[in-house]
Design a protein that fits this description.
By secondary structure, the chain is an alpha/beta fold. It has twelve helices and eight strands. The mean pLDDT is 96.
Length: 253
């Protein structure tokens, strides 16, 4: 079946609110009339509201870099689902390797965040991926299966089909300049597809989009996006400049 590619810029801890608004103004004008793939940007929490206002009615989706699972309460520093929805967030990015590595994210908390996102009517990009040690130990497929099944525990098939994007991000390729070979990407995405087919049905599993993330640049985007089961990218550093991000979007088209 034909899956529409999706390219999302994860800005991580970059750009002030005013810088973020200026950036999306430029992006918006350059993407006017754009079709062929879905585009999203993930600013910091402090920039979500002004960026959401700027993107309202545009063809660029607003994404948050995280979400908390409780509706409200005494949780200092957390941001609740309704707060994100009110900013105009369409996609929440959940379980990024940096969240797992530095902030104690687990498969269980990824699952709680995913349920919260779906309950609030937002879609989600769930990140999974192995470390270099796990790959060298031959455990890539095992790690991907565990993370995927943990994230999707008790999630309805209807939500998976209509609201879920998976991002495969080999941890050793994020921000390092190292890129997985096309064979490594093909194998990992094929395995993820097989797990989705097992959790859903082969027919429904084919509808879920799987992005690749990990040092995607204008120079390698076309080759990566041509790999079977690669339905776009979750882009880090190359999404911070309009020229490089536009080149990657055009590669996806």
């Amino acid at each position: 079946m034909k899956r529409v590619k999706i390219v999302v810029g994860n800005w991580k801890c970059h750009k002030t609110p005013s810088e973020s608004v200026e950036f999306v103004k430029e992006l918006k004008s350059r993407l006017q009339g754009h079709t062929g793939c879905e585009v999203g940007v993930g600013p910091t929490f402090t920039a979500l509201y002004p960026v959401g206002k700027e993107l309202s009615g545009s063809n660029i989706a607003l994404c948050s870099q995280n979400i908390f699972w409780e509706k409200q309460g005494a949780f200092t520093g957390e941001v609740a689902p309704a707060m994100l929805k009110d900013c105009g967030v369409k996609y929440t990015i959940i379980g990024h390797s940096e969240r797992r590595q530095y902030f104690g994210e687990t498969d269980e908390t990824v699952n709680k965040r995913l349920k919260a996102s779906f309950a609030e009517g937002m879609s989600a990009i769930v990140c999974i991926g192995e470390t270099l040690a796990q790959r060298e130990a031959g455990k890539t497929n095992e790690v991907l299966s565990t993370q995927l099944k943990g994230a999707l525990a008790d999630i309805s098939g209807a939500d998976m089909v209509s609201r879920l994007v998976i991002a495969y991000e080999p941890v050793w390729a994020i921000g390092t300049g190292k890129v997985a070979t096309t064979d490594q990407v093909r194998e990992a995405h094929a395995h993820i597809r097989a797990v989705l087919n097992e959790l859903l049905t082969p027919e429904l599993g084919e509808t879920v989009r799987i992005q690749y993330g990990g040092s995607v640049k204008p120079e390698n985007a076309t080759e990566i996006f041509a790999v079977e089961n690669v339905d776009g990218g979750l882009i880090g550093g190359a999404a911070l400049k309009a020229d490089s991000f536009m080149a990657i979007i055009n590669a996806a088209k």
